[in-house]
Amino acid sequence: MVANNDFVMTIEDDDQNINIVEEEEELENDVTVEEKTQPESETNSSKKKRKAEDKKKEKKEKKKAKTTTTTKKNDNDFDSGFTFAIDGGGSAGPNHAWDFTAAKSMLKEAQPNSVPRTDIDAIIEKKRQEAKAAKKKKASKKSNGDEDAFVDDDDEDLALDGFGAGAVDNEQNNEEEDDDDDDESDTDDESASDMDQDNESDGGVEKSAEAEEARKRAYFASEEENQTEAHESFTSMNLSRPILKGLANVGFIKPTEIQERTIPIALLGKDICGGAVTGSGKTAAFIVPILERLLYRPRQTAATRVLILCPTRELAAQVHSVAAKLGGYTDITFCLCVGGLNLKRQEAELKNKPDVVVATPGRLIDHVRNSAGFALDTCEILVMDEADRMLEDGFAEELGEIVEACPKSRQTMLFSATMTDNVDQLIRMSLNHPTRLFVDRSNQAASRLVQEFVRIRAHKEADRSAVLVALCRRTFKSRTIVFFKSKAAAHQMKILFGLLGLNAGELHGNLTQEQRLEALERFRDHKVDFLMATDLAARGLDIKGIDVVINYNMPNQFAQYLHRVGRTARAGRNGRSVTLVGESDRKMLKMAIKSAAAGSQVKNRVVPAESIQKYKKKVEKLTPQIEEILQEEKEERALRNAEMQLQKGENMIKHSSDIYSRPARTWFKTNKEKKQTKKGSR
Questions:
Q1: Torsion angle, alpha carbons of 444, 193, 554, 160, to 10
Q2: Rounded average pLDDT over 637-648
Q3: Which keywords has UniProt assigned to this entry (predicted)?
Q4: How many C-beta atoms lie closer than 10 Å to residue 173's C-beta?
Q5: Exposed e or buried b for every residue in 214-233, given b needs 16+ CB within 10 A?
């Protein structure tokens, strides 16, 4: 375990990181590495021999490829005894399970007379060109000439380990912060003594805890019922061949622990409350038994038998994509119902009674109340992904409406990385003697995650943007996602990165669904190096290739921190998180350190003061341009809204009879009740 006040290891002392960085530099500079490895004294004859050997290897590889293609032609020749690797839950090869093809095909069709949206990238590029032109004019007047404001050729070299960037040894760093750490430890001792006194004075706390444990034992199924046989592969679970072929097609390997324990119990039809760390394969854990059970469904009449709820649109699209690929060799039908997509097309698909519906709560209730011929009275399985978020107050009323519409005899499964076993919250879901499957601690980060923390002192809060730019310019130059608390902060930082010449995208609630999907796909395909996101992208999304997660602010809830850093180090891969920690975040920092898994690394990162001052000056110079871009964007948005209102009025005049003949869409709450709930939440 990690101590409360000290970090386990400094970046400078990490030999493993040195090797990682050296490998990355070798991958980036393949040509130079090969040239370095060649001996200087190599003769022409040895080069010819090596070329001849390389040609022989190529011929052998071509022969192997031909033999493998001939064996793949026979679809019926399926190897039922295929084995899996150790990590599990991941995907191998190009057939990764994550894409938004189905969601993009359901985007709203653009109207021919619609006003084009403001392209923020075009505005940023225009400002950059204007600034460059101004620079050239000044350079022509001056004999010396200035450097380009947006190209930093004078960036400092990285530290020897590649990730240090001026890291200070832990002992030296502690000398500067001895006073603060001593004060912190003193306050901790005082608070601990106060807590001991409170526990002695209040003997009812232990009794209430014992009563709560007794409630849990009575509510959940016994641990003996949860015990299942060990499975080395999916074939030992007696799954059907189409399901096994779907798993092999996606590239899923040896089942993870949550899959190994969940699938046999889910096939029995029992209610499940499951929790495991992020990236452990929870999605496949509930999709595989669902597909297996649907293979034996009655086919005389079509009916919607499975409902999967997700808190965000992107997560629902991802679950739909995984389910469709795993069930690609079956006749099971799927439907995606989320906001921002074509409503009429969703209604048409729901009329055909798809077997599985993946939806967000709001859009699902809309279809239940307003789409003709669609109901949940035939639902046999209800699944909630990221269930702890769905059980919060924000989704409480919507969730109650959905639960009432489903039959009571259904099977219910709840999954999340931070799943709670609070009986009062789970009672709302009408679970029937559920099985509790908590594979890992609910408050623990992944074992292969390296957690780093950058201290932001109280009088240095204004330097956060400069620290972030320094990290991204010097050290983490690609495959990095940055989390912010607000949509405005993410948007402004995207503009700042664009002015600095950094290729960045953004993902938050102010974007259209098309823009959100496009940003995710561009980041997935490495067309964008940085993704500025809010907590919209913090839950469930399995984007391949995220190496680093940076928290611009420490979130208010520790569960949200775990979900953020869980975007990397998934499915047994390595990952790194960097969090900017202020003075008010000490409590969350201690919780994060305690959450580190055994054997994982927690480090203190120090960014050199010279680099912070350098980039702070650049940020201050670019502040007027950022304000100009925001103002120009605001004016274009207002103009676009005015033109849209004009088009709406014209359509109302031309097609008033058709518009007023449509039935009004209803909701389970009135407008007054909506306003009251909003006021209460504030």
A1: -80
A2: 88
A3: ATP-binding, Coiled coil, Helicase, Hydrolase, Nucleotide-binding, Nucleus, Ribosome biogenesis, RNA-binding
A4: 15
A5: eeeeebbbeeeeeeeeebeb
Structural domains for the chain: 124-151+445-628 (3.40.50.300), 239-438 (3.40.50.300)
Q: Tell me the range of 62-71, 175-184, 586-595 where mean pLDDT is highest.
A: 586-595
- Tell me which residue has tokens 């496009």: 518
Nearest to 262 by CA among 287, 285, 288: 285
CA 257/CA 279 separation, integer angstroms = 12
199 Cα distance to chain centroid? 40
**Distance (Å, rounded) from C-alpha 359 to C-alpha 319?**
10
Question: Which tens digit of pLDDT belongs to each residue from 130-175?
Answer: 888 888 877 777 655 544 444 443 443 333 233 333 333 333 333 3
> 385: left (phi > 0), else alpha (psi -120 to 50), else beta?
beta
Q: Please give the C-alpha separations between residue 551 and each of 265, 302, 454, 503, 582, in angstroms, as whole numbers.
A: 37, 47, 10, 18, 12
Q: 3-state DSSP call for residue 261?
A: helix
**pLDDT tens for residues 50-66?**
666 776 666 666 555 55
DSSP 8-state class, residue 85: -
Is 533 strand, coil or helix? strand
Closest CA to 475 of 563, 550, 376, 551: 550
Q: Tell me how far CA of residue 7 lies from CA of 178, 406, 596, in angstroms.
A: 14, 50, 11
**First-to-last C-alpha distance (Å) of the chain:** 39
Which of residues 150 and 117 earns the better pLDDT score?
117
- Count how many Cα atoms sit within 13 Å of the Cα of residue 370 in the half-sphere of its side chain: 17
- What is the torsional sign of CA 549, 579, 444, 167? positive
Helix H or strand E encompassing 326: helix 313-326
Count of other CB atoms within 10 angstroms of residue 566:
26
Distance in angstroms (rounded) separating the CA atoms of residues 437 and 491: 40
Closest CA to 418 of 275, 533, 322: 275
Please give the Cα distance from 334 to 286 (Å, whole number).
15
pLDDT of residue 143: 55
DSSP states along 369-423: HHSTT--STT--EEEEETHHHHTSGGGHHHHHHHHHHS-TT-EEEEEETT----H
* CA–CA dist 516, 505 (Å, integer): 10
3 state DSSP class of 214: helix
Structural tokens at position 330: 């079956």
Residue 82, SS3 per DSSP: coil
Evaluate whether 552 touches 482 at the Cβ level (below 8 Å).
Answer: yes
Under 8 Å between Cβ of 386 and 311: yes
Residues 453, 454, 460, 463: is their CA dihedral positive or negative? negative
What was the pLDDT predicted at 109? Answer: 63
Q: Tell me the CA distances in angstroms from 315 to 311, 420, 520, 624, one per residue in order.
A: 7, 20, 11, 37
Query: Cα 347 vs. chain centroid, distance in angstroms?
Result: 29
Closest to 326 in 3D by CA, of 362, 298, 284: 284
- Three-class SS of 92-112: CCCCCCCCCHHHHHCECCCCC
In degrees to the nearest 10, what's the CA dihedral of 650, 655, 660, 665?
A: -80
Q: DSSP character for 115?
A: P
